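Look over what follows to help learners.
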Amino acid sequence: MLARSMARTISIVGAGRVGTTLGKRLRQLGWRIGAVVTRSGRTARAAVRTIGAGKPNWSIGPEVFAADLVLVCTPDDAMPAAVRSIAKLGGRDWGGKVVLHTSGALDRGVLDPLARLGGETGSLHPMQTFSGRNVPSLDGVTFAVEGNGKALRVAKQIARSLGGVPVAIAGADKPVYHATAVLAAGSAFPLIEAAVRMLEKIGFSRRRALETLLPLARQMLDNVERLGPRAAWTGPLSRGDFAVVAKHLRALRRYPREFRQAYVATALLAARVLAKNPQAALRDLRRVLKNSEGDNR
């Protein structure tokens, strides 16, 4: 049940993967959906169909201002222009309205044009991946929230109503917070894809390569959750078997240089954050890397 202090009508500016997902879930919780804005009529109508309510718009107009809450879900580089357009609506009558954006890296400062007009501003970012093809579970998901008093309260209430866990962070810490998502999830995609292509090169079908690696990745995550990162860490580097690491480096000469660079970067990072004696592990690993570079000449 929605808290009485929460806004009742929401406009969504930038109804892409995140905007449509949040809009659909909030509609199911009883919110009234107002304007749904994208860059074209086709995508706006598609977003409304996905959400199950709302009025499609392909430009920022008066309908956006009519809501109690405006949720800005545009890409980061498009957000300043979108905010300037929103600020032209309603003159100086933004007092009492809440505006939240969903960027992981930006703080509420990008919404300053609306704050100067009396709007209550903040940000609400779910630490979840959105494919656009299904609605991900938000139960237990961390929502980074920040903003002024009313905006922060509304952001926390929205997160809880969606089943998430709101965590208030300082605006200056948003880039670090967002970088952790890229390290933990975004960087996993190219690593797995690189591993798939390596298996394809030695005769695996793509399907078999995925069926080989994905269970391994899932088990690794399960082990981290159950045992903790250090206890779950496996592989030659965890055992101090630098001869195997050297063998891997030689084998990676057959692949584009980025494959070897990724292997080296992740090995150095693992030694730094997981080894019992990081300085010793890094020293031994760098010796192997130096000898490997000599082998390449």
